[in-house]
Amino acid sequence: MNDILKMVIVLGLICSVAGLALAAVYNVTKEPIEYQQIKFIKEPSVKAVLSGYENDPIKDRFALPAGKDKKGRDVFQTVFPAKKGGQVVALALDGSGKGFNGDIEVMVGLEPSGKLTGISVMKHAETPGIGSKVTEPKFTDQFKKLTVDNPTAVDGVSGATYSTKGVLAAVTEAVSYFKNNKQQILAQAGK
Amino acid sequence: MGLAKEFTKGLWQELPPFRLVLGLCPTLAVTTAAENGIGMGLATTFVLTCSNILVSLLRNIIPGKVRIAAFIVIIASFVVTVELLMQAYFYPLYQVLGIFIPLIVVNCIILGRAEAFASKRSLLPSIMDGLGIGLGFTMSLGFLGAAREILGGGTVFGLSVFWSSFEPMAFLLKPPGAFVCLGLILGLINIVSRR
Description:
The structure holds two protein chains of two kinds.
Chain A: H1 2-49, E1 62-68, E2 74-84, E3 87-98, E4 103-110, E5 116-123, H2 137-140, H3 161-180, H4 182-190
Antiparallel strand pairs in A: 1-2, 2-3, 3-4, 4-5
Chain B: H1 3-8, H2 16-20, H3 24-29, H4 34-57, H5 67-89, H6 91-97, H7 108-118, H8 123-153, E1 155-156, E2 159-160, H9 175-194
Antiparallel strand pairs in B: 1-2
């Protein structure tokens, strides 16, 4: 009996100290991690889809509510506004879609008029050399001529149907959020 | 055995991936470039040394029957710490190493050193053991990574090392190439150590 009690106490103590220490590390690293993710994943894509702006879209970013996920938690849509002379010239929104291998995250650039300024794939795990072709300019540049009314009217990558569909789903997600919440987004971006 | 010997045995006598042939999962998976191998090695060294210190300090408190569970909790905590720190301050490296950072938990070198060494020795030898084995692991991964990067990609640390018409053997960067490279190095080491 004594043995068991000792084991329980020692193991319990070790686990609680470990838990406390990890909570502390998590709290300290939370902000740097968020910053790094935006810097290394989102910033290059935001810069690729927006042009001719004078502000810092990363600094001016804001989040709007976007419903709830399956577990009932609030989901937010981050918007990166590009401004010139105080006027909003374009916005960047991210979306994600299911590809051949995991989610594909895409940044979509939009003008307030509804014209797409371009897309850039931020994160994917598609097959190198096949599905990964959806990240190449040959595919992504097609979106530049499109508008929010037909954002998926592009030629797919042959041999990479699922990857193409994933990108299109991601673009559709971002575009439809923009269409449904246009007033709200533009009001917030103009501030 | 002196403290210095505890340190140097990890560099040749008990060189983890090549002499003990332990910890092969990260050895094969992340060594596509010298930089990745060294990054992985340093992360492992940190976890190994920290867990050796704690295990050695707690060796008289932890009851024998639950020692493995206690070791795993200690190791896992340090691994999560490394993962968070790497995400916060070395994000590009974290993107490359990805899933293999959390997998350090099940790296048998670390549990092996905790069980076979740190749980029976005092603090100083345990620290030297952790640093020595960790450094040996880092060197091995760096060496294997450099070999694969040079022959498979024609670069080392991102710098080109060959003439422009050199055609790199790209298969060495794929998983089978890792086995081929590891096998050749193991063979070489066996030849050298037999003499």
